[in-house]
Design a protein that fits this description.
385 residues; two-stranded parallel ribbon; two-stranded antiparallel sheet; 12 helices
């Protein structure tokens, strides 16, 4: 009979569970679980960025009131350059003024001199207050991009100037041309201001909310052109010569040396109907005023002549518009369908002209390419007129 084995000996020996080490447990508690495998560490560029934001860049958290707040207006320490220069100039003026007052008081009585010195100290202390009005921005302060020193932030129309434009056009009944010449604002901008002001006033009547706080905040951070009634500031150039389509070609036109070749002759070379530069600028009346000034005419006489010229030009425009409407009513036949209006007009083959480039021809609006750069074309003049 085999020997009997006790049950206790068949059981596996109980191995005590591993005791968690204190070092591993501390690591698990101090490091939270991260789902990203990207290493999180502060680079030198990131440290430099936060160092700048907390240092010199802290001045850009709040916009400078009633002034631009560009990078070029500050030095590397975050100090406003023009304010620092103005403070230095003010200190120099105060010191010079203090020296003069001290010299004057030293010549008088001693008690009065002591009182004057105390007054000088108060004045010099008052000149160092931060609430001193800032000087106007210099051209270097209007560069928003430090790497692009050729770009300058251009001024925008102030709210007072926009209201003045609206009042002169809509309430006083002046023409857009006169308002543009008087205030130094380009005619297209004057028309845009009038249209936008009309929309704004219409919204006010309807009770629609306006983004006035936003507009005020944006305007306070941009350079503006103020409105001075008696001495308006020119906002932009208003008499630039537009580029005519006929002048985009290259033309070699020989002229004899004895001929007096003027701008009017040059315009006819490009196109028979092209006017000279002084007749194509937006404000031809300003050119005429300058001619009258060169002729020696006095101010009141020039004003009277300009008024007569403006009245004649307005009457001429009204007559031309009347003739255009009469011709359209006579030549154009209209057919109303309720939703659409069809217009029918007779076209002649001769309307396109000899070269087929006349604007009255069918399809003229779609363009016709020039052949001055086409290969094989004769570009050298073959005769002298």
């Amino acid at each position: 009979m085999p020997p009997r084995i006790l049950r206790s000996s068949l059981q596996s020996p109980q191995i005590p569970p591993p005791r968690p080490s204190s070092r591993r447990q501390c690591l698990c508690q101090s490091r939270p679980r991260k789902f990203s495998s990207t290493p999180q560490h502060a680079t030198r560029q990131r440290q430099d960025m936060f160092r700048w934001l907390n240092g010199p860049g802290a001045v850009f958290r709040q916009p400078l009131p009633n002034s631009t707040n560009y990078l070029n207006a500050y030095d590397q320490s975050g100090n406003l350059v023009r304010a620092r220069d103005a403070t230095l100039r003010g200190q120099e003026k105060e010191e010079d003024k203090d020296e003069e007052e001290v010299k004057d008081e030293d010549e008088g009585e001693e008690d009065e001199g002591g009182a004057s010195k105390d007054k000088v100290k108060k004045r010099s202390a008052k000149g160092m207050v931060d609430g001193v009005p800032l000087p106007k921005e210099t051209p270097d302060d209007l560069m928003p991009y430090p790497m692009n020193r050729q770009f300058r932030s251009q001024p925008v129309l102030s709210e007072d100037l926009k209201n003045a434009i609206w009042k002169r056009v809509m309430e006083e009944g002046k023409s857009v041309r006169d308002v543009s010449a008087a205030l130094g604002v380009e005619m297209r901008r004057v028309g845009a201001v009038v249209r936008l002001k009309a929309v704004e006033k219409e919204w006010e009547k309807q009770g629609k909310p306006l983004a006035a706080p936003y507009a005020k905040a944006v305007l306070s951070m941009l350079p503006q052109t103020p409105y001075i009634p008696n001495d308006p500031i020119t906002h932009e150039s208003i008499n630039d010569l537009p580029v005519h389509r006929a002048t985009e070609r290259q033309i070699f036109h020989p002229v004899s040396e004895s001929r007096h070749f003027t701008r009017r002759d040059a315009g006819k070379v490009f196109d028979r109907t092209l006017l000279p530069a002084e007749d194509r600028v937006p404000h031809t009346e300003l050119v005429q005023l300058e001619k009258w000034r060169e002729e020696g005419k006095i101010g009141p006489e020039r004003v009277q002549m300009q008024r007569e010229a403006n009245a004649a030009a307005a009457e001429k425009r009204k007559e031309a518009e009347k003739l255009r409407r009469e011709r359209e009513a006579r030549e154009v036949q209209k057919a109303e369908t309720g939703r659409w209006q069809f217009r029918f007009q007779d076209i002649k083959v001769e309307d396109v002209g000899k070269d087929g480039r006349d604007r009255r021809g069918v399809g003229a609006r779609y363009g016709f390419p020039h052949e001055d750069r086409k290969k094989g074309q004769i570009k050298i003049p073959r005769r002298v007129e």
